[in-house]
Design goal:
The protein has 148 residues and is α+β, with helices and mostly antiparallel strands. It has 3 helices and 8 strands; from the N terminus they run αβββββββαβα. The strands form 2 sheets. The chain has a 6-stranded antiparallel beta sheet with strand order 7-6-5-2-1-8, covered by helices on one side. A two-stranded antiparallel sheet has the order 3-4. The radius of gyration is 16 Å and the shape is globular.
Amino acid sequence: MTWNRVSIYNMGMVTKSFVLAGRASFILANPSGESVTVKISQSREKRDAQGNVKPAMHWVTLRHNNDPWDWVGSLIISQGTIKPKYGSSVNPRILSIANWALDCVWKGLTMPSGYRLEHTGRCGRCGKMLRDAKSIKSGFGPECIKYV
């Protein structure tokens, strides 16, 4: 099994707007069947003691195959990369795979032949199960698509 960078890709339904919508979850699978599931949840804006708005954070949780979920850090939106939390115990290889997938999304690239990058069938904004074909294709439910 290899996770090599390839110059020609074939992207699924995962887009930058989907990733940043608030409750995105997607799977990256390689030709041998190994997979990494990524969840990116947006926190709410908060105010400090002086009333200044603190920007919302995007928290990243990873799962390799069927291993337990592991909160790994936050998403650096300008770069489309994961900033690991201090003392993170996540496997560096799994983190680099997730960053590679995000890099493909941020640059609008597609996945190599045999690789899949697809959402998990849940709305990227609210997390509810998607039921109709149009929603499944876009990654957003009929109400949430209005806000994206």
